[in-house]
Specification:
It is built from no helices and 23 strands. The chain has 360 residues and is mainly β. The two termini are 34 Å apart.
Length: 360
């Protein structure tokens, strides 16, 4: 989903930040790397990178563009991000693959809005989400693609996620399936909304957060499973002169112990972006899969713990909305990469932040 931010040039930075949850320990920012603006690759404009996952077999990153088949057909890129525990040395595009629909054709303009992707390590299949287009009556979707972009199948969505004619219920435009996380055993795919369904509550404001559903699906059958509520923060910063501001969930990732990492991305006009990373625990929340509305309040949201406020990093923030576990570093520690979506805006950048995950 598009979010505008203030972009300033910065040098590589390194910071150690305390994480207040067990298991993750501390996150150390190794550094950053940025793609050239307006980069052309094989006749496509590189931008809108909203989904990110590591392919260990090919030793490359998979990055989905949220271009709605307008600048070029819906697609994903292969990225090389050169880093180790000492430094981030660069980022480059090394390939592009077109996504195809059930008929084997490229997706028509405005028919799809790719936002997130996870690669199944056992099969190589790609689980990806589309926000659809509520204003145009296009439902959000969860699809399975082959490594070459060919469509394999779709998931069954509960009715509440589909566009309603009266707009008194269902998803809000451009605030639907923004994040995807594949459980370590590969049996469950979690898909996060960016903001609340109409019948669940309001979008985030300066005073209150928004109840966001994170829904589980059986990867073998595509059928829906348990759902949990994640409460976002209120919008952390007021915009200038009464301008636009928002906050929502931009990505999720399994932490490896049954909990989820949740990336909250906020924007305030004239102020820029605020980015926070939380850890949330579904095991301590209510399964709301049988509730078509959350207004009665008879549920418990996932408890969450702040792991990182990106505002403490000392780097310029942008529209960060993609996140993936990377290869292990030479010391055995995990690496984490967070990527920004430039919205195809010349004032924004495609930037990768690379972290080392230090144990407790």
């Amino acid at each position: 989903m598009a979010r505008f931010g203030i972009v300033l040039g910065v040098l590589l930075a390194c910071a150690v930040l305390p994480a207040q949850a067990e298991g993750i320990g501390r996150l150390r920012l190794i550094g950053e790397a940025t793609l050239p603006k307006g980069l052309d690759y094989e006749g496509t404009t590189v931008g809108g990178l909203s989904g990110l996952d590591w392919d260990p077999a090919a030793r490359q990153w998979i990055a989905f563009s949220d271009d709605r088949s307008e600048k070029a057909p819906a697609r994903f890129y292969a990225l090389s991000i050169d880093y180790d525990a000492e430094a981030v040395r660069g980022i480059a595009v090394t390939g592009v693959t077109l996504l195809r629909d059930a008929a084997g054709q490229s997706f028509p303009p405005k028919s799809v809005d790719p936002e997130a992707v996870r690669r199944d390590p056992a099969t190589g299949l790609l689980y990806w989400s589309s926000e659809g287009g509520v204003k145009a009556g296009i439902d959000p979707t969860i699809s399975v693609a082959a490594p070459d972009g060919a469509w394999r199948r779709g998931f069954d969505l509960p009715r509440r996620y589909r566009v309603s004619e009266d707009k008194d219920s269902g998803p809000r435009d451009n605030l639907t399936f923004e994040g995807v996380a594949l459980a370590p055993d590969g049996r469950t795919l979690f898909v996060s909304m960016e903001s609340a369904l109409v019948q669940d509550g309001p979008v985030a404001s300066l005073d209150e957060g928004s109840p966001v559903r994170i829904a589980g699906f059986d990867t073998a059958t595509g059928r829906p499973g348990p759902e949990y509520v994640y409460m976002t923060d209120p919008i952390p910063t007021a915009p200038l002169l009464g301008g636009h501001a928002d906050n929502g969930v931009s990505e999720i990732l399994p932490a490896g112990d049954g909990t989820l990492l949740v990336l909250e991305r906020a924007y305030a006009q004239g102020r820029g972006n605020s980015i926070r990373l939380y850890r949330a625990d579904p095991a301590l929340a209510t399964d709301v899969s049988r509730l078509d509305s959350l207004f009665d309040g008879s549920w418990l949201a996932m408890p969450k713990t702040l792991l990182l406020d990106f505002g403490t990093l000392g780097v310029a923030l942008d529209n960060f909305e993609a996140m993936g576990w990377g290869p292990a570093l030479a010391n055995g520690h995990r690496s984490l990469v967070v990527l920004s979506d430039d919205n195809f805006n010349p004032l924004q950048v495609t930037k990768a932040l690379v972290f080392e995950v230090l144990p407790d």
